[in-house]
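Hello,

I think I submitted the 6-O-phosphono-alpha-D-glucopyranose job twice by accident. Can you confirm which output corresponds to this input? Input:
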Amino acid sequence: MCGIIGYIGHDNATSILIAGLKRLEYRGYDSAGIAVIQNGQIEVRRSVGKLTNLEQALQQAPLYGNIGIGHTRWATHGKPSEQNAHPHRSNGVAIVHNGIIENYLTLKQRLQKEGFVFDSETDTEVIAHLLALHIRDGRSLHDAFLAATRELQGSYAIAGMYVGEPETLVATRSGCPLVIGRNEKAAFLASDVTPLLPHTHEVVFLEDGDIAVLTAQSTTITGAEGRVAERKSVRIDWDAEAAEKGGYPDFMLKEIHEQPQAILDTLRGRYSYETGEADLPDLGLTSQELLEAKRMWIVACGTSWHAGLVGKYLFEELIRKPVQVDIGSEFRYRQPMIQAGDLFIAISQSGETADTLAAVREARLRGARILSIVNVVGSTLARESDGVLYTRCGPEISVASTKAFTGQVVALYLLALHLGRIRQVLSLEDGRWWLDQFMALPSKVEHVLKREAEILSMAKRFYTMRNFLYLGRGINYPIALEGALKLKEISYIHAEGYAAGEMKHGPIALIDEDMPVVVLAPRDQLYEKTVNNLMEVKARKAPVIAFVSEGERELGALADFVFTIPSSHPLLSPIPFTVALQLFAYHVAILRQVDVDRPRNLAKSVTVE
Ligand code: G6P
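Support: Only one job matched these inputs. Its output is below.
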Protein backbone atom coordinates (compact mmCIF):
# COMPACT_ATOMS: atom_id res chain seq x y z
CA MET A 1 0.00 0.00 0.00
CA CYS A 2 2.15 2.82 -1.27
CA GLY A 3 1.15 6.47 -1.57
CA ILE A 4 1.35 8.44 -4.79
CA ILE A 5 1.02 12.16 -5.47
CA GLY A 6 1.19 14.39 -8.52
CA TYR A 7 1.10 18.14 -9.18
CA ILE A 8 0.95 20.38 -12.23
CA GLY A 9 0.57 24.16 -11.98
CA HIS A 10 2.62 27.33 -11.72
CA ASP A 11 4.24 26.94 -8.30
CA ASN A 12 7.30 24.90 -7.41
CA ALA A 13 6.18 21.28 -7.40
CA THR A 14 8.79 20.11 -4.85
CA SER A 15 7.32 21.66 -1.71
CA ILE A 16 3.77 20.68 -2.73
CA LEU A 17 4.83 17.08 -3.36
CA ILE A 18 6.71 16.81 -0.07
CA ALA A 19 3.78 18.27 1.87
CA GLY A 20 1.52 15.75 0.12
CA LEU A 21 3.84 12.84 0.84
CA LYS A 22 3.86 13.73 4.54
CA ARG A 23 0.12 13.28 4.54
CA LEU A 24 0.49 9.92 2.77
CA GLU A 25 3.31 8.59 4.90
CA TYR A 26 0.88 6.51 6.95
CA ARG A 27 0.30 4.33 3.85
CA GLY A 28 3.88 3.09 3.78
CA TYR A 29 7.23 4.45 4.67
CA ASP A 30 10.25 2.34 3.82
CA SER A 31 11.45 4.76 1.16
CA ALA A 32 10.26 7.79 -0.76
CA GLY A 33 11.06 9.82 -3.84
CA ILE A 34 9.97 12.60 -6.15
CA ALA A 35 10.60 13.52 -9.78
CA VAL A 36 10.10 16.91 -11.41
CA ILE A 37 10.73 18.19 -14.91
CA GLN A 38 13.48 20.77 -14.43
CA ASN A 39 14.87 22.61 -17.47
CA GLY A 40 13.42 20.02 -19.82
CA GLN A 41 14.92 17.04 -17.94
CA ILE A 42 13.46 14.53 -15.54
CA GLU A 43 15.23 14.96 -12.21
CA VAL A 44 14.74 12.46 -9.42
CA ARG A 45 15.58 12.38 -5.70
CA ARG A 46 15.00 9.20 -3.72
CA SER A 47 15.86 8.08 -0.19
CA VAL A 48 15.45 5.03 1.98
CA GLY A 49 13.66 5.44 5.32
CA LYS A 50 11.58 8.30 6.60
CA LEU A 51 10.60 11.31 4.54
CA THR A 52 13.02 13.49 6.46
CA ASN A 53 15.81 11.66 4.59
CA LEU A 54 14.29 12.73 1.29
CA GLU A 55 13.93 16.27 2.57
CA GLN A 56 17.63 16.29 3.46
CA ALA A 57 18.53 15.00 0.00
CA LEU A 58 16.48 17.85 -1.48
CA GLN A 59 18.20 20.41 0.72
CA GLN A 60 21.53 19.26 -0.66
CA ALA A 61 20.31 19.08 -4.25
CA PRO A 62 17.11 21.11 -4.63
CA LEU A 63 14.64 20.62 -7.48
CA TYR A 64 12.53 23.27 -9.22
CA GLY A 65 9.77 22.66 -11.70
CA ASN A 66 6.02 23.14 -12.19
CA ILE A 67 5.20 19.49 -12.72
CA GLY A 68 6.11 16.55 -10.55
CA ILE A 69 5.20 13.19 -9.05
CA GLY A 70 6.04 11.63 -5.70
CA HIS A 71 5.79 8.34 -3.86
CA THR A 72 6.10 6.81 -0.41
CA ARG A 73 6.84 3.15 -0.73
CA TRP A 74 5.74 0.09 1.18
CA ALA A 75 7.81 -2.55 -0.57
CA THR A 76 6.22 -5.53 -2.30
CA HIS A 77 8.69 -6.45 -5.05
CA GLY A 78 12.29 -5.86 -4.06
CA LYS A 79 13.73 -4.73 -0.75
CA PRO A 80 13.53 -1.12 0.40
CA SER A 81 16.50 0.58 -1.28
CA GLU A 82 17.19 3.76 -3.19
CA GLN A 83 17.26 1.86 -6.47
CA ASN A 84 13.89 0.25 -5.83
CA ALA A 85 12.30 3.48 -4.59
CA HIS A 86 9.97 5.30 -7.00
CA PRO A 87 9.82 7.27 -9.28
CA HIS A 88 11.19 4.96 -11.98
CA ARG A 89 12.43 6.34 -15.28
CA SER A 90 12.85 5.34 -18.88
CA ASN A 91 13.86 7.58 -21.79
CA GLY A 92 12.34 10.80 -20.53
CA VAL A 93 9.36 9.11 -18.84
CA ALA A 94 8.96 9.03 -15.04
CA ILE A 95 6.28 7.15 -13.17
CA VAL A 96 5.07 6.25 -9.70
CA HIS A 97 2.98 3.18 -9.02
CA ASN A 98 0.89 1.69 -6.24
CA GLY A 99 -0.12 -1.98 -6.58
CA ILE A 100 1.23 -5.17 -8.10
CA ILE A 101 1.95 -5.99 -11.75
CA GLU A 102 1.29 -9.72 -12.02
CA ASN A 103 2.74 -10.28 -15.48
CA TYR A 104 5.87 -8.20 -14.92
CA LEU A 105 8.24 -11.08 -15.66
CA THR A 106 6.78 -11.70 -19.11
CA LEU A 107 6.78 -7.98 -19.84
CA LYS A 108 10.30 -7.59 -18.52
CA GLN A 109 11.63 -10.30 -20.84
CA ARG A 110 9.89 -8.67 -23.80
CA LEU A 111 11.20 -5.21 -22.93
CA GLN A 112 14.74 -6.52 -22.44
CA LYS A 113 14.56 -7.95 -25.96
CA GLU A 114 13.54 -4.46 -27.11
CA GLY A 115 16.75 -3.15 -25.56
CA PHE A 116 15.46 -1.69 -22.29
CA VAL A 117 17.83 -2.03 -19.34
CA PHE A 118 16.43 -2.57 -15.87
CA ASP A 119 17.91 -0.81 -12.85
CA SER A 120 15.68 -2.09 -10.05
CA GLU A 121 14.15 -5.30 -8.69
CA THR A 122 10.65 -3.84 -8.84
CA ASP A 123 7.66 -4.85 -10.92
CA THR A 124 7.02 -1.11 -11.38
CA GLU A 125 9.95 -0.51 -13.67
CA VAL A 126 8.25 -2.43 -16.50
CA ILE A 127 5.58 0.28 -16.59
CA ALA A 128 8.14 3.04 -17.22
CA HIS A 129 9.77 1.06 -20.03
CA LEU A 130 6.45 0.01 -21.51
CA LEU A 131 5.32 3.64 -21.71
CA ALA A 132 8.66 4.63 -23.24
CA LEU A 133 8.27 1.85 -25.81
CA HIS A 134 4.85 3.12 -26.87
CA ILE A 135 6.10 6.70 -27.02
CA ARG A 136 9.01 5.51 -29.16
CA ASP A 137 6.37 4.05 -31.48
CA GLY A 138 4.89 7.53 -31.93
CA ARG A 139 2.16 7.66 -29.32
CA SER A 140 1.32 10.57 -27.03
CA LEU A 141 1.66 10.01 -23.28
CA HIS A 142 -2.10 9.49 -22.99
CA ASP A 143 -2.12 6.95 -25.82
CA ALA A 144 0.93 5.23 -24.38
CA PHE A 145 -0.99 4.86 -21.11
CA LEU A 146 -3.94 3.45 -23.03
CA ALA A 147 -1.77 0.94 -24.86
CA ALA A 148 0.21 -0.01 -21.75
CA THR A 149 -2.84 -0.59 -19.60
CA ARG A 150 -4.12 -3.08 -22.16
CA GLU A 151 -1.02 -5.14 -21.46
CA LEU A 152 -0.67 -4.75 -17.70
CA GLN A 153 -2.24 -7.40 -15.49
CA GLY A 154 -2.70 -6.85 -11.79
CA SER A 155 -3.69 -3.93 -9.65
CA TYR A 156 -2.34 -0.47 -10.08
CA ALA A 157 -2.63 3.25 -9.74
CA ILE A 158 -0.02 4.96 -11.90
CA ALA A 159 0.93 8.58 -12.44
CA GLY A 160 3.46 9.58 -15.06
CA MET A 161 5.00 12.42 -17.03
CA TYR A 162 7.17 12.72 -20.12
CA VAL A 163 9.72 15.38 -21.05
CA GLY A 164 8.22 15.61 -24.54
CA GLU A 165 4.91 16.82 -23.02
CA PRO A 166 6.04 18.86 -20.02
CA GLU A 167 2.58 20.36 -19.52
CA THR A 168 0.62 17.18 -18.94
CA LEU A 169 0.43 14.79 -16.08
CA VAL A 170 -1.28 11.46 -16.85
CA ALA A 171 -2.70 8.94 -14.42
CA THR A 172 -4.71 5.74 -14.46
CA ARG A 173 -5.99 3.10 -12.11
CA SER A 174 -7.22 -0.46 -11.92
CA GLY A 175 -7.98 -1.96 -8.55
CA CYS A 176 -6.03 0.67 -6.56
CA PRO A 177 -7.43 4.01 -5.49
CA LEU A 178 -6.64 7.27 -7.27
CA VAL A 179 -8.27 10.62 -6.75
CA ILE A 180 -7.81 13.89 -8.61
CA GLY A 181 -8.68 17.45 -7.74
CA ARG A 182 -7.98 20.97 -8.95
CA ASN A 183 -8.23 24.66 -8.17
CA GLU A 184 -8.06 27.60 -10.62
CA LYS A 185 -4.29 27.39 -10.98
CA ALA A 186 -3.30 23.78 -10.66
CA ALA A 187 -4.25 20.10 -10.71
CA PHE A 188 -3.40 17.42 -8.16
CA LEU A 189 -3.66 13.67 -7.92
CA ALA A 190 -3.08 11.25 -5.05
CA SER A 191 -3.80 7.79 -3.67
CA ASP A 192 -6.37 9.27 -1.34
CA VAL A 193 -7.89 12.63 -0.56
CA THR A 194 -5.58 13.46 2.37
CA PRO A 195 -2.93 15.41 0.41
CA LEU A 196 -5.55 17.16 -1.72
CA LEU A 197 -7.45 18.77 1.13
CA PRO A 198 -5.19 21.85 1.58
CA HIS A 199 -5.81 22.65 -2.11
CA THR A 200 -9.40 21.61 -2.75
CA HIS A 201 -12.37 19.82 -1.20
CA GLU A 202 -13.94 18.94 -4.59
CA VAL A 203 -12.42 15.70 -5.87
CA VAL A 204 -13.03 13.04 -8.50
CA PHE A 205 -12.44 9.38 -7.71
CA LEU A 206 -11.21 7.71 -10.88
CA GLU A 207 -12.87 4.48 -11.94
CA ASP A 208 -11.01 1.35 -13.07
CA GLY A 209 -9.66 1.88 -16.57
CA ASP A 210 -9.97 5.67 -16.49
CA ILE A 211 -7.05 7.72 -17.78
CA ALA A 212 -6.84 11.30 -16.53
CA VAL A 213 -4.88 13.95 -18.39
CA LEU A 214 -4.17 16.92 -16.15
CA THR A 215 -2.79 20.30 -17.17
CA ALA A 216 -2.59 23.51 -15.14
CA GLN A 217 -5.84 24.64 -16.79
CA SER A 218 -7.82 21.51 -17.59
CA THR A 219 -8.71 17.96 -16.65
CA THR A 220 -9.81 15.36 -19.20
CA ILE A 221 -10.78 11.83 -18.30
CA THR A 222 -11.12 9.04 -20.82
CA GLY A 223 -12.70 5.68 -20.06
CA ALA A 224 -11.18 2.27 -20.74
CA GLU A 225 -12.10 2.42 -24.44
CA GLY A 226 -10.28 5.74 -24.84
CA ARG A 227 -13.38 7.96 -25.21
CA VAL A 228 -13.95 11.03 -23.04
CA ALA A 229 -15.88 10.12 -19.89
CA GLU A 230 -17.81 12.33 -17.46
CA ARG A 231 -17.01 11.72 -13.81
CA LYS A 232 -18.91 13.52 -11.06
CA SER A 233 -16.91 15.39 -8.44
CA VAL A 234 -17.55 14.73 -4.78
CA ARG A 235 -17.28 17.23 -1.95
CA ILE A 236 -15.12 15.99 0.93
CA ASP A 237 -15.60 17.70 4.25
CA TRP A 238 -13.15 15.57 6.23
CA ASP A 239 -10.25 17.12 8.05
CA ALA A 240 -6.80 15.64 7.42
CA GLU A 241 -6.99 13.16 10.30
CA ALA A 242 -10.36 11.77 9.21
CA ALA A 243 -9.04 11.52 5.65
CA GLU A 244 -6.04 9.39 6.70
CA LYS A 245 -8.48 6.98 8.20
CA GLY A 246 -10.47 6.95 4.96
CA GLY A 247 -13.41 8.49 6.81
CA TYR A 248 -13.46 5.71 9.43
CA PRO A 249 -13.36 6.85 13.06
CA ASP A 250 -10.15 4.89 13.71
CA PHE A 251 -7.56 2.73 12.00
CA MET A 252 -8.88 -0.49 13.47
CA LEU A 253 -12.26 -0.20 11.78
CA LYS A 254 -10.57 0.89 8.55
CA GLU A 255 -8.26 -2.12 8.68
CA ILE A 256 -11.13 -4.50 9.41
CA HIS A 257 -12.87 -3.16 6.31
CA GLU A 258 -9.72 -3.44 4.20
CA GLN A 259 -9.70 -7.23 4.55
CA PRO A 260 -11.41 -8.15 1.26
CA GLN A 261 -8.71 -6.14 -0.54
CA ALA A 262 -5.88 -7.52 1.62
CA ILE A 263 -7.01 -11.09 0.90
CA LEU A 264 -7.19 -10.39 -2.82
CA ASP A 265 -3.80 -8.70 -2.83
CA THR A 266 -2.21 -11.61 -0.97
CA LEU A 267 -3.62 -14.03 -3.55
CA ARG A 268 -2.94 -11.85 -6.57
CA GLY A 269 -0.54 -13.25 -9.13
CA ARG A 270 0.23 -16.25 -6.96
CA TYR A 271 -1.83 -18.98 -8.58
CA SER A 272 -2.37 -20.64 -11.90
CA TYR A 273 -5.60 -22.28 -12.97
CA GLU A 274 -3.69 -24.01 -15.72
CA THR A 275 -1.66 -26.03 -13.24
CA GLY A 276 -4.13 -25.86 -10.32
CA GLU A 277 -1.16 -24.61 -8.35
CA ALA A 278 -0.07 -21.82 -6.09
CA ASP A 279 2.63 -19.96 -7.98
CA LEU A 280 5.09 -18.81 -5.32
CA PRO A 281 8.33 -17.72 -7.02
CA ASP A 282 9.53 -15.84 -3.91
CA LEU A 283 9.37 -18.91 -1.72
CA GLY A 284 13.14 -19.36 -1.83
CA LEU A 285 12.80 -23.11 -1.28
CA THR A 286 12.72 -25.61 -4.10
CA SER A 287 10.06 -28.29 -4.36
CA GLN A 288 12.82 -30.80 -3.63
CA GLU A 289 13.76 -29.02 -0.40
CA LEU A 290 10.13 -28.85 0.63
CA LEU A 291 9.64 -32.54 -0.11
CA GLU A 292 12.74 -33.48 1.84
CA ALA A 293 11.51 -31.75 5.01
CA LYS A 294 10.81 -34.50 7.52
CA ARG A 295 8.81 -32.34 9.88
CA MET A 296 7.03 -29.03 9.78
CA TRP A 297 7.09 -26.45 12.55
CA ILE A 298 5.20 -23.20 12.89
CA VAL A 299 6.30 -20.60 15.43
CA ALA A 300 4.79 -17.18 16.14
CA CYS A 301 3.44 -14.94 18.91
CA GLY A 302 0.06 -13.42 19.74
CA THR A 303 -2.42 -13.21 16.92
CA SER A 304 0.16 -14.61 14.49
CA TRP A 305 0.38 -17.73 16.67
CA HIS A 306 -3.37 -18.19 16.20
CA ALA A 307 -2.81 -18.08 12.45
CA GLY A 308 -0.14 -20.76 12.99
CA LEU A 309 -2.66 -22.96 14.81
CA VAL A 310 -5.06 -22.60 11.87
CA GLY A 311 -2.11 -23.73 9.73
CA LYS A 312 -1.74 -26.91 11.75
CA TYR A 313 -5.35 -27.98 11.15
CA LEU A 314 -5.04 -26.99 7.51
CA PHE A 315 -1.77 -28.77 6.73
CA GLU A 316 -2.62 -31.91 8.63
CA GLU A 317 -6.02 -32.28 6.96
CA LEU A 318 -5.14 -31.10 3.49
CA ILE A 319 -1.65 -32.43 2.97
CA ARG A 320 -1.50 -35.12 5.63
CA LYS A 321 1.72 -34.02 7.25
CA PRO A 322 2.22 -33.51 10.99
CA VAL A 323 2.85 -29.97 12.13
CA GLN A 324 4.18 -28.79 15.48
CA VAL A 325 3.02 -25.29 16.45
CA ASP A 326 4.88 -23.34 19.12
CA ILE A 327 4.79 -19.96 20.78
CA GLY A 328 8.05 -18.12 20.11
CA SER A 329 8.94 -17.62 23.77
CA GLU A 330 8.38 -21.32 24.51
CA PHE A 331 10.25 -22.71 21.55
CA ARG A 332 13.41 -20.80 22.30
CA TYR A 333 13.78 -22.11 25.83
CA ARG A 334 12.95 -25.75 25.51
CA GLN A 335 14.94 -28.38 23.70
CA PRO A 336 12.87 -28.63 20.52
CA MET A 337 13.47 -31.85 18.59
CA ILE A 338 13.99 -30.01 15.36
CA GLN A 339 16.36 -31.53 12.83
CA ALA A 340 18.41 -30.52 9.85
CA GLY A 341 16.17 -30.16 6.81
CA ASP A 342 12.94 -29.64 8.79
CA LEU A 343 10.71 -26.88 7.47
CA PHE A 344 10.35 -24.08 10.02
CA ILE A 345 7.62 -21.54 9.28
CA ALA A 346 7.76 -18.28 11.25
CA ILE A 347 4.71 -16.02 11.11
CA SER A 348 4.83 -12.35 12.00
CA GLN A 349 3.10 -9.17 10.92
CA SER A 350 6.02 -6.92 11.83
CA GLY A 351 8.88 -9.34 11.25
CA GLU A 352 10.52 -7.81 14.32
CA THR A 353 9.03 -9.76 17.25
CA ALA A 354 11.97 -10.66 19.50
CA ASP A 355 10.70 -14.08 20.61
CA THR A 356 9.89 -15.17 17.06
CA LEU A 357 13.31 -14.03 15.85
CA ALA A 358 15.05 -15.87 18.68
CA ALA A 359 13.13 -19.04 17.77
CA VAL A 360 14.17 -18.67 14.13
CA ARG A 361 17.83 -18.35 15.13
CA GLU A 362 17.53 -21.44 17.31
CA ALA A 363 15.95 -23.41 14.46
CA ARG A 364 18.62 -22.24 12.04
CA LEU A 365 21.37 -23.37 14.42
CA ARG A 366 19.83 -26.81 14.31
CA GLY A 367 19.84 -26.86 10.53
CA ALA A 368 16.16 -26.19 9.74
CA ARG A 369 15.08 -24.38 6.58
CA ILE A 370 13.34 -21.12 7.43
CA LEU A 371 10.28 -19.90 5.60
CA SER A 372 8.57 -16.81 6.95
CA ILE A 373 5.14 -15.32 6.43
CA VAL A 374 5.62 -11.61 6.99
CA ASN A 375 3.81 -8.36 6.26
CA VAL A 376 6.72 -5.93 6.44
CA VAL A 377 9.06 -6.27 3.49
CA GLY A 378 12.73 -6.14 4.39
CA SER A 379 12.04 -6.70 8.12
CA THR A 380 14.60 -8.61 10.19
CA LEU A 381 12.64 -11.84 9.97
CA ALA A 382 12.34 -11.57 6.20
CA ARG A 383 16.07 -10.96 5.91
CA GLU A 384 16.95 -13.90 8.12
CA SER A 385 14.76 -16.40 6.28
CA ASP A 386 15.58 -18.71 3.38
CA GLY A 387 12.27 -17.84 1.79
CA VAL A 388 9.50 -15.33 2.44
CA LEU A 389 5.84 -15.37 1.60
CA TYR A 390 4.72 -11.78 2.04
CA THR A 391 1.19 -10.99 3.09
CA ARG A 392 0.25 -7.92 1.14
CA CYS A 393 -1.94 -6.17 3.68
CA GLY A 394 -0.32 -2.74 3.64
CA PRO A 395 0.73 -1.12 6.90
CA GLU A 396 -1.29 -2.20 9.89
CA ILE A 397 -1.43 0.75 12.25
CA SER A 398 -3.94 -0.24 14.89
CA VAL A 399 -2.20 -2.20 17.66
CA ALA A 400 -4.65 -5.10 17.63
CA SER A 401 -3.96 -7.16 14.54
CA THR A 402 -6.86 -7.72 12.12
CA LYS A 403 -6.06 -7.67 8.40
CA ALA A 404 -2.57 -9.07 8.99
CA PHE A 405 -4.16 -12.16 10.56
CA THR A 406 -6.47 -12.87 7.62
CA GLY A 407 -3.53 -12.22 5.27
CA GLN A 408 -1.46 -14.79 7.17
CA VAL A 409 -4.21 -17.39 6.94
CA VAL A 410 -4.51 -16.75 3.19
CA ALA A 411 -0.73 -17.18 2.82
CA LEU A 412 -1.06 -20.51 4.65
CA TYR A 413 -3.80 -21.58 2.21
CA LEU A 414 -1.47 -20.84 -0.70
CA LEU A 415 1.33 -22.74 0.94
CA ALA A 416 -0.95 -25.70 1.72
CA LEU A 417 -2.04 -25.82 -1.91
CA HIS A 418 1.56 -25.67 -3.09
CA LEU A 419 2.64 -28.45 -0.72
CA GLY A 420 -0.44 -30.51 -1.55
CA ARG A 421 0.30 -30.33 -5.26
CA ILE A 422 3.99 -31.12 -5.01
CA ARG A 423 3.32 -33.98 -2.60
CA GLN A 424 0.66 -35.15 -5.07
CA VAL A 425 -2.03 -35.44 -2.44
CA LEU A 426 -4.03 -32.86 -4.39
CA SER A 427 -4.88 -33.47 -8.04
CA LEU A 428 -5.04 -30.85 -10.77
CA GLU A 429 -8.83 -30.77 -10.34
CA ASP A 430 -8.51 -30.45 -6.55
CA GLY A 431 -6.10 -27.57 -7.04
CA ARG A 432 -8.48 -25.72 -9.32
CA TRP A 433 -11.35 -26.33 -6.95
CA TRP A 434 -9.38 -24.88 -4.02
CA LEU A 435 -8.38 -21.86 -6.08
CA ASP A 436 -12.05 -21.13 -6.75
CA GLN A 437 -12.74 -21.35 -3.03
CA PHE A 438 -9.88 -18.99 -2.20
CA MET A 439 -11.08 -16.47 -4.76
CA ALA A 440 -14.55 -16.49 -3.21
CA LEU A 441 -13.22 -15.44 0.21
CA PRO A 442 -13.23 -11.64 -0.33
CA SER A 443 -16.94 -11.60 -1.18
CA LYS A 444 -17.74 -13.73 1.88
CA VAL A 445 -15.90 -11.21 4.03
CA GLU A 446 -17.75 -8.35 2.29
CA HIS A 447 -20.99 -10.09 3.16
CA VAL A 448 -20.06 -10.12 6.87
CA LEU A 449 -18.92 -6.49 6.80
CA LYS A 450 -22.17 -5.35 5.25
CA ARG A 451 -24.05 -6.67 8.26
CA GLU A 452 -22.05 -4.77 10.82
CA ALA A 453 -25.24 -3.22 12.25
CA GLU A 454 -26.38 -6.65 13.50
CA ILE A 455 -23.09 -7.10 15.31
CA LEU A 456 -23.37 -3.64 16.81
CA SER A 457 -26.74 -4.52 18.29
CA MET A 458 -25.21 -7.66 19.87
CA ALA A 459 -22.43 -5.51 21.28
CA LYS A 460 -24.99 -3.12 22.78
CA ARG A 461 -26.62 -5.97 24.62
CA PHE A 462 -23.38 -7.36 26.09
CA TYR A 463 -20.80 -4.60 26.48
CA THR A 464 -21.24 -4.23 30.22
CA MET A 465 -20.40 -7.88 30.92
CA ARG A 466 -17.22 -8.71 32.82
CA ASN A 467 -16.36 -12.14 31.44
CA PHE A 468 -16.81 -14.00 28.17
CA LEU A 469 -16.17 -17.56 27.08
CA TYR A 470 -15.46 -18.29 23.41
CA LEU A 471 -15.91 -21.84 22.15
CA GLY A 472 -14.84 -23.42 18.88
CA ARG A 473 -13.88 -26.81 17.56
CA GLY A 474 -11.41 -28.04 14.98
CA ILE A 475 -9.97 -25.32 12.80
CA ASN A 476 -12.24 -22.82 14.55
CA TYR A 477 -10.75 -23.54 17.96
CA PRO A 478 -7.88 -21.13 17.16
CA ILE A 479 -10.52 -18.65 16.00
CA ALA A 480 -12.18 -18.88 19.42
CA LEU A 481 -8.76 -18.05 20.91
CA GLU A 482 -8.36 -15.14 18.50
CA GLY A 483 -11.88 -13.80 19.16
CA ALA A 484 -11.23 -13.87 22.91
CA LEU A 485 -7.82 -12.24 22.49
CA LYS A 486 -9.30 -9.44 20.38
CA LEU A 487 -11.95 -8.77 23.01
CA LYS A 488 -9.50 -8.64 25.91
CA GLU A 489 -6.93 -6.57 24.01
CA ILE A 490 -9.26 -3.73 23.13
CA SER A 491 -12.20 -3.85 25.55
CA TYR A 492 -10.31 -4.96 28.69
CA ILE A 493 -13.01 -7.54 29.37
CA HIS A 494 -11.76 -10.89 30.56
CA ALA A 495 -12.35 -13.44 27.82
CA GLU A 496 -11.17 -17.00 27.38
CA GLY A 497 -11.07 -19.10 24.27
CA TYR A 498 -11.63 -22.81 24.71
CA ALA A 499 -11.99 -25.92 22.62
CA ALA A 500 -15.72 -26.60 22.91
CA GLY A 501 -15.13 -30.23 23.87
CA GLU A 502 -12.88 -29.17 26.73
CA MET A 503 -15.54 -27.00 28.38
CA LYS A 504 -16.71 -29.86 30.58
CA HIS A 505 -13.20 -30.16 32.02
CA GLY A 506 -13.21 -26.88 33.88
CA PRO A 507 -14.82 -23.78 32.43
CA ILE A 508 -18.28 -25.21 32.92
CA ALA A 509 -17.84 -24.39 36.60
CA LEU A 510 -17.83 -20.70 35.69
CA ILE A 511 -20.95 -20.72 33.58
CA ASP A 512 -23.95 -18.81 34.88
CA GLU A 513 -26.22 -16.00 33.65
CA ASP A 514 -23.35 -13.49 33.88
CA MET A 515 -21.01 -15.38 31.57
CA PRO A 516 -21.97 -14.91 27.93
CA VAL A 517 -20.74 -17.72 25.71
CA VAL A 518 -19.73 -17.01 22.14
CA VAL A 519 -19.89 -20.14 20.07
CA LEU A 520 -18.52 -20.73 16.60
CA ALA A 521 -20.48 -23.43 14.85
CA PRO A 522 -19.98 -23.73 11.11
CA ARG A 523 -21.76 -26.60 9.40
CA ASP A 524 -19.08 -29.29 9.62
CA GLN A 525 -18.73 -32.79 11.00
CA LEU A 526 -18.46 -31.37 14.53
CA TYR A 527 -21.61 -29.28 14.35
CA GLU A 528 -23.84 -31.69 16.30
CA LYS A 529 -21.25 -31.96 19.05
CA THR A 530 -21.14 -28.18 19.37
CA VAL A 531 -24.95 -28.10 19.65
CA ASN A 532 -24.68 -30.54 22.54
CA ASN A 533 -22.12 -28.32 24.26
CA LEU A 534 -24.54 -25.45 23.94
CA MET A 535 -27.33 -27.42 25.59
CA GLU A 536 -25.07 -27.63 28.62
CA VAL A 537 -24.45 -23.90 28.49
CA LYS A 538 -28.15 -23.09 28.18
CA ALA A 539 -29.01 -25.40 31.06
CA ARG A 540 -26.83 -23.10 33.18
CA LYS A 541 -28.66 -20.00 31.93
CA ALA A 542 -25.69 -18.37 30.23
CA PRO A 543 -26.51 -15.98 27.37
CA VAL A 544 -25.40 -17.51 24.05
CA ILE A 545 -24.11 -15.66 21.00
CA ALA A 546 -23.88 -18.07 18.09
CA PHE A 547 -21.98 -17.58 14.87
CA VAL A 548 -23.30 -20.20 12.46
CA SER A 549 -23.29 -21.06 8.77
CA GLU A 550 -26.09 -19.64 6.66
CA GLY A 551 -29.23 -21.77 6.69
CA GLU A 552 -28.72 -23.22 10.18
CA ARG A 553 -31.88 -23.35 12.29
CA GLU A 554 -31.09 -25.65 15.19
CA LEU A 555 -28.82 -23.27 17.06
CA GLY A 556 -31.16 -20.38 16.40
CA ALA A 557 -33.59 -21.85 18.89
CA LEU A 558 -30.92 -22.20 21.55
CA ALA A 559 -29.04 -18.95 21.16
CA ASP A 560 -29.93 -15.45 22.32
CA PHE A 561 -28.21 -13.94 19.30
CA VAL A 562 -27.41 -15.63 16.01
CA PHE A 563 -25.19 -14.24 13.32
CA THR A 564 -25.01 -16.19 10.08
CA ILE A 565 -21.81 -16.49 8.10
CA PRO A 566 -21.74 -17.35 4.37
CA SER A 567 -21.12 -21.07 3.96
CA SER A 568 -17.77 -22.31 2.81
CA HIS A 569 -15.62 -25.40 3.05
CA PRO A 570 -14.95 -25.89 6.80
CA LEU A 571 -11.21 -25.29 6.31
CA LEU A 572 -11.97 -21.85 4.89
CA SER A 573 -14.51 -20.83 7.55
CA PRO A 574 -11.90 -19.22 9.88
CA ILE A 575 -11.64 -16.09 7.75
CA PRO A 576 -15.28 -14.93 7.69
CA PHE A 577 -15.77 -16.08 11.29
CA THR A 578 -12.76 -14.08 12.42
CA VAL A 579 -14.00 -10.92 10.73
CA ALA A 580 -17.33 -11.19 12.56
CA LEU A 581 -15.51 -11.59 15.89
CA GLN A 582 -13.24 -8.63 15.14
CA LEU A 583 -16.32 -6.46 14.60
CA PHE A 584 -17.87 -7.72 17.80
CA ALA A 585 -14.76 -6.92 19.85
CA TYR A 586 -14.46 -3.56 18.13
CA HIS A 587 -18.01 -2.44 18.90
CA VAL A 588 -17.88 -3.66 22.48
CA ALA A 589 -14.66 -1.66 22.97
CA ILE A 590 -16.10 1.48 21.36
CA LEU A 591 -19.18 1.27 23.58
CA ARG A 592 -16.81 1.06 26.54
CA GLN A 593 -15.03 4.16 25.22
CA VAL A 594 -11.63 2.57 24.77
CA ASP A 595 -9.07 4.05 22.38
CA VAL A 596 -9.10 0.97 20.16
CA ASP A 597 -6.06 1.93 18.10
CA ARG A 598 -3.87 2.32 21.19
CA PRO A 599 -5.07 -0.07 23.89
CA ARG A 600 -3.34 0.30 27.24
CA ASN A 601 -0.09 -1.59 27.95
CA LEU A 602 0.14 -3.10 24.45
CA ALA A 603 2.69 -2.44 21.73
CA LYS A 604 2.30 -3.01 18.02
CA SER A 605 5.63 -4.68 17.75
CA VAL A 606 7.32 -6.31 20.73
CA THR A 607 11.02 -6.10 19.97
CA VAL A 608 12.20 -7.01 23.47
CA GLU A 609 11.86 -10.25 25.31
C1 G6P B 1 2.12 -7.82 19.78
C2 G6P B 1 0.88 -7.24 19.12
C3 G6P B 1 -0.02 -8.36 18.61
C4 G6P B 1 0.77 -9.28 17.69
C5 G6P B 1 2.03 -9.82 18.37
C6 G6P B 1 2.92 -10.56 17.40
O1 G6P B 1 1.77 -8.46 20.97
O2 G6P B 1 0.18 -6.43 20.03
O3 G6P B 1 -1.12 -7.81 17.90
O4 G6P B 1 -0.05 -10.36 17.28
O5 G6P B 1 2.79 -8.75 18.91
O6 G6P B 1 3.39 -9.64 16.47
P1 G6P B 1 3.93 -10.00 15.03
O7 G6P B 1 4.36 -8.68 14.45
O8 G6P B 1 5.10 -10.92 15.25
O9 G6P B 1 2.84 -10.65 14.27
